[in-house]
Each structure stands twice: as C-alpha cells, then as structure tokens.
Amino acid sequence: MERQTSERRVDHAALKVNQAFIITLLLLAFVLDSWPIAAFVGAVMLLGTAAPALGLFQQVYRYLLRPAGIVKAQVVVDNPEPHRFAQGLGGAFVALSVVALLVGQTLLGWILAWIVIVLAALNLFLGFCAGCFVYYQLNRLGLPGFDRQPITSEH
Fold it and tell me: Could you tell me where the beta strands, DSSP code E, fall in the chain?
C-alpha cells in the first residue's frame, strides 16, 4: 500500500503553468469584455479535465516551456484526482460565466469568472487549492467517486 501511495506523483509546475494561463486569459477576457476568450478558457479547462493528455495549457508546459528550460519540473508525491476535480469545477464556473454573459447577465458572468481567477491565484501564489479542499471534504463524507485521501508524508 505504501509503495502505491509513494508512486503517485503530480508535477506541480504543470499545475502552476495551467493556473497562470487561466488567470491571464480570464483577466484578458474581462478587460476586453470578451466572452469568446472566456469560452476558450472554459473549454480548455473542461477538455483537460475529461482527457488530461489533451489539456492545452499542460501541453504548452510539457512540450515548450519545460524543454526550453523556462519552467522546471516540480514533481511531488500527490494525487492527481483532486487537481483534476478542481479544474473541472473551475471549468464549470467559467462555462456558467459564459452562459450568463451570453444571456445578458454581465455582472453575474464576470463574478463567476472572477471567482475562478481568485481561486487560481490563491493556488498559484499561496499553494492552496480550494477545489482540492472540496474534493477531500467530499472524500471525508464518503461520497462515491471521491475515493482518494490526502497523501501524508511519513518521513
């Protein structure tokens, strides 16, 4: 059991690049009042959640930034599922944001986008993943599908 746990790893540099793209592009969408940019971000987030290998921002990291030495890998023992859940939740918020913008609920639309910006920034700059926190709380409640517990270091 311990061996299985120690083999679970996540590259946190890839997560940080993903968050930086989300923050930057959603801020750009807000400044330009551009729902298509927000829709693009939401689509990338949801696609990356459904099929992690297809996540565009992760691919930019994996095939451009890391090989060029611009960003160095930061692989740590961690569960990928809570991070994927967090991204999916953020993607859902962005999708709802776009729907609100399209139906003329501008204030609601940008509030939803700003929630994602703030939570991604909290993770990027302070290392607190709110979506991961929610995932682990759902795990504690025994909800089906939330089967990973936090990995604790025993060193």
Answer: 9-11, 75-77
